[in-house]
TrEMBL record, chains A, B:
Keyword Oxidoreductase: yes
Active site: Y152
Origin species: Halogeometricum rufum
Keywords: Carbohydrate metabolism, Glucose metabolism, NAD, NADP, Oxidoreductase
Name the record gives this protein: NAD-dependent glucose-6-phosphate dehydrogenase
Enzyme class: oxidoreductase
Keyword NADP: yes
Gene3D superfamilies: NAD(P)-binding Rossmann-like Domain (3.40.50.720)
Organism lineage string: Archaea, Methanobacteriati, Methanobacteriota, Stenosarchaea group, Halobacteria
Chain ranges of the NAD-dependent epimerase/dehydratase domain: 5-182
């Protein structure tokens, strides 16, 4: 496609992972609340392609959305312990504002950064720590109802429901990526849960690239590398998006 | 139990159906944004038992919640066509505020008025109008992911997710009742959809009474009468809550 891809929350960790590994794949338009220095922008993305705004500012979002082909929506309060007032405003109201602007502008595809925290309460005491281990067969596949770990997780589950609404009523393709534990270079050390839901930077970039390129209607997929340890299925991401991860947290274990 | 049951949105249609048919079953405490005249209160419920407040007023809600055994939470913007700003504030933020006050006060049970609009988009063109007819076997049973009809439905699905969070993390029993089409006296006329999801006033009151009396963890049930036409299963409400409806929209058809 020739039209740009709008990346909200471009300066955050997920946004930087995407730009570092897929910076040359699309014509990017970047949005963040804070200015993005040259070190945070891929080559060829100038200051004119950067929109500095709060995502609840409807007019500013409308301007950023003009002529956009696809949105990767990462902006929001990323803290699992974020208080309700913040996730209500930044994650719930903010995501509504981005969806509404996207359908108003005729955007075709929308990838939403959901989170493992939308389903963290499936990690019940009777399942832990077994579900983090390679031999355990418990899996979530995206068909299950949310069970949030925290109010941040509630806000992410709400973003998924907003996507369902906008897909059903406005036809926009929507994929929700329940991002695992994104760390650079290697998986979390001495942390089985983090290893079970590890997502490497390059697998993260590849996955969101597939969200722009693939054809789909409405999907909920898990965003983790191809770890031996896992309790999230990546089958749906492989089938629908053509996700083909290269990393595995087991390769970093002693 | 001797402790009161708090009914929010007591002056609305669902609240009045409950009070008219179950007004003598519990010690009621009523909450509404508007004053409730004597004709809207059951015998024995005086003005001292009525709290006039907006549900986003945390201090007022805290006072109303003191010593309460169970909450039936109906308050919110009831319009399917309600705009986002209203459902964000009244239905999403308001429901969070009621849940938080309930767990702070040690409330044991929480019945949330969800809606058929949380799943209205399952009524796809290829299923309509067959799914409204007695011979059709398509059923929703509460395990399915939300597919809201509108932003009001998004807000109701969010209330369900808030309930999941508060149940998992604070132990409060939560039941979400996806209320169908509540009309007094008889089902909607010449409206197959309304007949398929008809809920009579007395069945509505009985169902919420069971939500106060029965034991459960976290549930999503459908609130309709025992209609011949239906695409919502009431099996779960029967099994878990002991719901035993007496009405059927078919008895009113010509």
């Amino acid at each position: 496609m020739d039209e740009p891809v709008l990346l909200t929350g471009a300066g955050g960790r997920v946004g930087q992972a995407i730009l570092r590994h897929s910076g040359d794949r699309f014509e990017w338009r970047l949005l963040d609340r804070e200015p993005l220095g040259a070190e945070k922008r891929p080559d060829g993305v100038g200051e004119d392609d950067v929109y500095i705004t709060d995502i609840t500012d409807e007019e500013a979002v409308e301007a950023a959305m003009d002529g956009v082909y696809a949105v990767i929506h990462l902006a929001g309060d990323p803290r699992p312990e974020a208080p309700w007032d913040s996730v209500l405003r930044n994650n719930i109201d903010g995501t509504h504002s981005i969806f509404q602007a996207a359908v108003d502008a005729g955007v075709e595809k929308f990838a939403f950064a959901s989170s493992n925290h939308a389903v963290g309460a499936y990690e019940t005491p009777d399942r832990k720590p077994d579900l983090y281990r390679p031999e355990d067969e418990f899996r979530l596949d995206g068909d299950e109802l949310p069970r949030p770990s925290n109010l941040y997780g509630v806000s992410k589950a709400t973003g998924e429901v907003l996507g369902r609404y906008y897909h059903d009523h406005h036809g926009i393709s929507v994929v929700n990526v329940r991002i695992g534990n994104l760390t650079e270079g290697h998986p979390p050390i001495d942390y089985e849960r983090g290893q079970a839901m590890w997502l490497s930077y390059r697998d993260c970039a590849h996955l969101f690239e597939r969200c722009v390129v693939a054809d789909y209607d409405y999907e909920i997929v898990y965003g983790i590398s191809d770890n031996d340890r896992k309790y999230y299925s990546i089958d749906r991401a492989r089938e629908v998006l053509g996700y083909d991860p290269v990393d595995n947290s087991a390769e970093f274990e002693d």
